[in-house]
Structures are given as C-alpha cells and as structure tokens.
Amino acid sequence: MANGSVRVRFCPSPTGNPHVGLVRTALFNWAYARHTGGTFVFRIEDTDAARDSEESYEQLLDSLRWLGFDWDEGPETGGPHEPYRQSQRTDLYADVARRLLEAGRAYHCYCSTAELDARRDAARAAGRPSGYDGHCRELTAERKSAYEAEGRTPIVRFRMPDAPITFTDLVRGEITYLPENVPDYGIVRANGAPLYTLVNPVDDALMEITHVLRGEDLLSSTPRQIALYDALTELGVAKGTPAFGHLPYVMGEGNKKLSKRDPESSLNLYRERGFLPEGLLNYLSLLGWSLSADRDIFTVEEMVAAFDVADVNPNPARFDLKKAEAINADHIRLLDVNEFAERCAPWLRAPFAPWAPEDFDPAKWDAIAPHAQTRLKVLSEITDNVDFLFLPEPVFDETSWTKAMKEGSDALLRTAREKLESADWTSAESLKEAVLAAGEAHGLKLGKAQAPVRVAVTGRTVGLPLFESLEILGREKALARIDAALARLTA
Ligand code: GLU
Ligand code: ZN
After folding, report:
1. Which ligand 1 atom is at minimum distance from the Cα of 22?
2. Residue 71: C-alpha distances to residues 150, 184, 199, 278, 418 (Å)
3. 190 and 155 Cβ atoms separated by less than 8 Å
4. Is the pTM higher than 0.90?
5. Residue from 45, 47, 225, 228 whose mutation best tests the ligand 1 pocket (most atoms within 8 A of CB)
6. Residue 450 Cβ contacting ligand 1 at under 6 Å
7. At 155, which helix (H) or strand (E)?
8. Residue range 429-471, pLDDT digits in tens
9. Could you identify the atom of ligand 1 that is nearest to the CA of residue 12?
10. Could you tell me the domains of the chain?
11. Closest residue to atom 4 of ligand 1, CA basis
12. Which of 134, 301, 377, 459 would bridge with 394, disulfide CB 3.0–4.6 Å?
C-alpha cells in the first residue's frame, strides 16, 4: 500500500434519492479512513446518462454534509486525482480500453443480443455454464472484417484468466471463484460508452484506493475486478490490487433484503421525520458492527475511535425501525437543552407548524422545551406536542375527544375548573392538587380525572406532562378552554 496509508472511497451513482444502505457504506468507509488517519475519497459514478441526474448529485452532497461527513478528495473539495465525476473522465477510460485491447487482455465481441441469448438458452438446456462462451476470443482478421461488413459494431470484452481466483475478503475471509462461473465480460458498449465494470476499477486504480468497502451485492463483481487489476498492473495503470471487504446485506420487513424502493430505506424520510444525524449514524453503524456487547448508544467519535473493518459481522443485519427510533430518542436526550431547542426550529415554523408565526411565543417555547426533550423519538413530533401553546384554540382530535369525554365529564370539568381557578398558577404541583381534588369529589383517580382536562386544553389524550403544560399555557387561556369544552359538551 502506497506509504502504508489507507485510501478508501465512497462512489455512489447519482440515481434517485440516497438510501440507508448507501449511508451505511459511506459511514463505514469514512469511519475507517478517520480511524486509520487515512484518506476518504468521494467520487461520483455518473456514467449512466439515462439514469443519473444533477438533482440527485446535489442531493448526495447535501445528504453527506447533513450527516457530518467530510471528504479529503472529491467534488467541490478537489484533490490530486481530479476530476471526481466520472462523466468528466471519459478520455481516461477510452485510453485504458485501447491499451487493454492492444495487450490482448480484452477483445472485440461482435455477438448480437439475439445470438447471445440463443447460445445461453442452449447451454442451459444442455446443463453447461450459461455465461459468455468465448465465441469472439480468437476471431481471425477475416471474420472481423466480415462482421464489420455486415454493419456490426463490437463491444469490448475483458478476457478472464482460465484459472480460479482466490482472495481474502476483509469481512468474509477467503473466497474462491472458478473460471466457469466468471465468464468474459463487457467493459465498453458498442457506442463507445465505458461501463461500470471498467470505470470503477480503473478509477480505484488511478486514485490509488487501498481498501474497497462496499455492499455484499457487489461481491460477484470482485473476481472480475481482481482479474482486471492484474491487467491494469501489468500496463502500469494500477500499483497493485486493493483489499476488498463486503458489508452484510440489510434485511427489511419479512426478512427480505431492504431495497432502495422500500419507503423505509429513503434517507430523506429520516431527515424529514427529524432523526438527528448522530442518532441515525449510531443506528446505521449497528448494521453489521457493534462497539461492545453492552453499549448501543455512542457518539460518532467513539465509533471512529473503535472502528475496524475486521470486526464487521458477515451475517445479514436486520433493519429495525423501532430500534432506530429508540436510539434516536436517546440522542435527543443527550443534547444540551438549548441545542435541542435549536434543532427543533424547522418544525416550529411553516410548513410544519399550523400556527401564525406571530403567535409563536419564545418564552413559552423555552419553558416547554425541557419537558418535550425527554419525550420525543423524532424531532418532527414536537409540532403536535406544543401546538396547544401557540394556536388560539386547541385542535380537537375526535378520537381523543370521544375517549375522554364520557358520561359525567361535564360535572368533573366544572369541579376541576372551580379548583383550578383558585390554584397557584406558578406551581404545577398546585395545579395537580386541584385536579386531584376534583377527581376525589367524583370518585375518580388522577389518571381518569385529568383526561378530560387534557383534551379540553390541548385537544388530545396524550402529550407532554399536563400540569407543566397548564402552568406554561397560563391561567386565563386554560380556564377559557375548559369553558369552551363545557359549552361543546352541553351543546
Ligand atoms: N457506483 C457503484 C454503486 O453505486 C459503486 C460500487 C462500488 O462500490 O464498487 O453501486
Ligand atoms: Zn462475441
């Protein structure tokens, strides 16, 4: 390895929204670079003009920044191997493809799709390996001219060695592929466009990547890439073959592989729901790794200090939304309360907040924030939890209303109002005494007695601690809301 220093890369294709699998790959690479004092290279694999989009590219950069990743080389940062977008490196690939052809490590293949399909079906029927059969490996000059005279344009195909390929995966140990299972494969399309199969290893070679850490779905491309690396090393394009480590699959609902198309795999969803980046990263790091058997909650710095690819578990990891939320809730509690209040800001204004901006009261917000901090799983829950403070009237949730306003609720509310009227509104304890006393007068425990009061004042049966909420809302508004609920009840 050059200078013995680790160089890892994160090289997504800008297609669609970033998903959690991608983030886990970025995280493990980034953590490994930071742990080893190495270099984290960020490269954009945008060679598929039909699927890539500029919007997706912008989103990727924005997501990585939101998560707190920094890259030592890559878009906008620059570096010694610029450019870091494959769409701007086409000449490099054409040059390498030409040299592979010259050296006989690749060849032109003129087979049409129909011919390939027919031979594959025949091979299958005969129980032979069904990959590319080497048809064009040794074409004579005459055959080639004849094909060209027919108007065929060839693809470039890489010639695989006729020997097994063995490598030691950093996560899964030694793996061997037999030649019949890894046939010759295309590296340049008939129209001259280079494929992932070529550009990904070529760039890893040129960017002197030492460790390729990526998802298990790419494992089957590794023997091909190792063979290509040998050829690139022979040509002087590569300085050797990197080490490979394949991160375990992430399983979703029903023990099926979590797919990019599953809604719960979309990074934006977590961001919009108000996951903290540190909470999400903590959770994603547990998909194949752990800090220690008895600690689920840790900071990203703690992860970096401990992270080694050798400790990644090859078994499939299960994506568990409940656990992700529980971990996020813990990270919310770990914030300094001012920091918590600040991070909630986006959900305290339009389009999330239903109240008029001028009705937002910072003093009330400061007072309620510590009570909310210990109860949220995700930050977006803040809006519904505090809207009673900033809306002129509570929004009645009809299910809550029906549940709390039973026979006799009007009598209870009347007594509660009376007791509350003479309570000390600077003390949540005093407000609690008032509702407790009202309950006693009607033979109800505190829990039952406070439900109609809570719905009258906040609109819902569940929410932040009631007596603190009442104190912060204030006497006048709270009593007026009880009156309005009584009117609604008797109407
Ligand atoms: N652009 C490829 C992908 O997003 C990268 C694969 C790799 O890491 O080698 O799947
Ligand atoms: Zn062919």
Report:
1. 4
2. 50, 35, 21, 18, 63
3. yes
4. yes
5. 45
6. no
7. strand 155-158
8. 999 999 999 999 999 999 999 999 999 999 999 999 999 999 9
9. 4
10. 89-247 (3.90.800.10), 398-490 (1.10.10.350)
11. 12
12. 459
